[in-house]
Amino acid sequence: MPSRRCRFALAFALTLAAPALILLLPALAAAAPIRLWHAYRDDEARALDAIVAAFNGEEVEVLAVPFDAYASKLQAAIPMGEGPDLFIDAHERLGDFRARDLVAPVGDALEPGGEAVFQGPALAAVRQGGEILGLPISQKCVALYMNTALVKEAPATLEDIEALAGSLPQGVYPLAYEASNAYAHMPILAAFGGAMLGEDDQFGFVGPGPERSLELVRSLIARRIVPEDANGALVTDLFNAGRAAFVISGPWFAGGLREEARRRARVVPLPEVRETGLPMRPFLTVEAVMLSPQGARRAGARALARHVAGAAAAATRLRVARTPPVRSDVAIPAGDAFIAAFTEQAKVAIPMPTSPAMRSTWEPSTRAIRKVLRGDAPPDVALSEAKRRFDDVRRPLPPPASPAPLLAALGALALLLALRWVRASRRAAPGTAHWRLFRRSLRRSFVRSIPAYKYVAHAVVAIGVLVVVPLVIGAATSLFAGRGEGLRYVGLANFISILTARGGPLFASGSFYLVLAVTVLWTAVNLCLHVLLGVSLALLLRRPTLRLRALYRVLLIVPWAVPSYVTALSWKGMFHRQFGAVTGLIEAVNSALGTSIEPISWFSSFTTAFTANVTTNVWLGFPFMMVVTLGALTAVPDDVLEAAEVDGATRWQRLRKITLPLIRPVLAPAVTLGAIWTFNMFNVVFLVSGGDPDGTTDILVSEAYRWAFTREAQYGYAAAYSVLIFLLLTLATREWRFRRRTPVSALPKGGAEAGSAPVPAAATEAA
User: Fold this and answer.
1) pLDDT per residue as tens digits for the range 105-136
2) What per-residue string of b and e applies to 237-258 under the rule 16 or more CB within 10 Å gives b?
């Protein structure tokens, strides 16, 4: 009775306190700290911490999120009410953020008269539909870095840089930049009057102007004015080594320079192109502090946004992180040519479009640029193909479908399973009395098994949460279509679109069947080489006469121990046509033997790019097969091998008739795992070849990635690809397991009872 009274008193007290708690909820929410998210690192992160520390207001909780996961975490957290009150991001995502309802107008966070304070196009970049959706805090664009040890005066035109080719030391490039990158090509494209995205979200990288811009860059590479296939790391290395007179890059480039290179570096605005008389105008990225819908309702969050975008904060960023200011009331230090040059360049830069369609321009534009620069297609053909790809990604979504057929199918399946269970139960215990006894015994056995269920409950929950639930959600997502801002049920339309190659030829570039064929070829070649090298090295390390076996074993495991993305990037660098280790080896052979072997452009054809991918993946994969084979070889009886040797069996016969059959049961699961891993080996394909040339080396998993993250976030379409990958792997592995089963009739006499019978039979056959 006392316990009942206590419970009654507690319930009565909670009933009386409930209205008070409801009234206190707004106050409790207001007392929560203001959450600020950013993706800064190093000096920029330290500058932001100093700015937040100087804020006189509510408590602020600052969270640094990795850049690669930044947008996805915002998209997942803000709609659930668990995201930030304000966050810092680039302005080009505003269109996508607004479509997803992740951002709200700044309101009174913009200080009175603030529109006149921000200079250049910074404020226009964050304005949409007459509303200001962010407060600019910094602006970034590319400019021209000069190596003052090689050149003394800033060029007036691009042609002045070309004219340096004859006066510079041998091996020095007049200009270095990432010529095959669409973002880096924008300044030259703008000088010819072109644009990446046209009006009404149409593909703008077509026409005479863009074609002439590509022809100009191709001629620069052909005359060795600009290095071929240059990436960011290579451009930095060339400038550090004094092998580049000029470099086109942004403020981030200075962070990778050595102290000596930084002292001789000078930044000036980009020149004009004499052929057109127009200046080179790069894209402008404006970083802004943005308010989430819940943050826009908090006065403290708006005050913090005003503080982060204020003059004092801009001065702190200028001092700590050397970030060019966007405010006219922040003076640039006298003599700071670095900041002054980027500030001057930003005034004529082109703000990057905020439309979600902009994200769909990068992939087709970059592929077109690479095809032209490698001589695979003329500019007009490459750009026309890029437009078709853009239009294909942007085409209207499938019409909504009725979920009634799906619900009916699920209901019929559930009913069928229930009927089968009842029939099986009644077959096990026929008759009413027997049915009662069966249910009673089933209940008793369940009660007795509760302790066992407790032991496995955590594993069942973990597997369900980590494996089953994602599979179910992925399968369900494949029945929807949308570009991230809102999915709608379309039934099997995504699967039909994939299996019909989106209405085009079945084996056209990028079609499901062509990518599937490349994936099967990729898996088969890699798996054969993995098994061949792994088993061969294991047999070699198994020999008792081999010295330093432990050392060799450790060295051969190292490729497997190193993270795959590090290995992939290293091999990609070695395959570079001009500066890679493979080219260096070819040059060494030419010098030693007097030959004239030309360096290979590895990523300009399918054969060489596929070979580069396979070489990298074999280097990563053979240690696993080697380790598994070494473990399996320990179970091979030495006396059986000795008996076969005495009977006259050769070494090859002993391997083929005894060793391989005995290690086959251990190798079979390893081969299955290797096939699954290779089938989905995203890192190597994405980091080494990147799908080049023209996406022909992409496999199914990398194609699914592109539909999810580079083609306007079509998650339903990407999920359909994932479901097809899952079904293909499931059917293939089940077929493999079925085929390798041995019929009972094929076993030697004695079967399982005669455990040693198969081995002497194999030994006798070998003899």
Assistant:
1) 998 898 887 788 887 788 888 988 788 999 99
2) bbbbebbbbbbbbbbebbebbe
